[in-house]
Fold Transposase DDE domain-containing protein.
Amino acid sequence: MDTFTALEDYRRREKIEELFAVQKGGLDGSMSRTWYTDNLRRRQFAQFVSLGYHCFLTKKIKELRQGLRKSGNGKTKARLSQ
């Protein structure tokens, strides 16, 4: 793996963990809002997976935007059709 790619993946992982900690601690307050710990763990797991998908989709959107910039070379649609 390229050095910069590995660093980008590491930072993305760090962001997921940071967002998960904020959701777990700050947004819910000190109340767990559930009677059973299994329900809490399921909910936290679902939040963690959703953050992972969020970062994955963000990465794919970034790659698509870069691909679109390379294919058009900054030309407008009218100039490309000429």
Q: What stands out?
A: Helices lie at 3-27, 37-72, 77-81. The two ends are 41 Å apart (CA to CA).
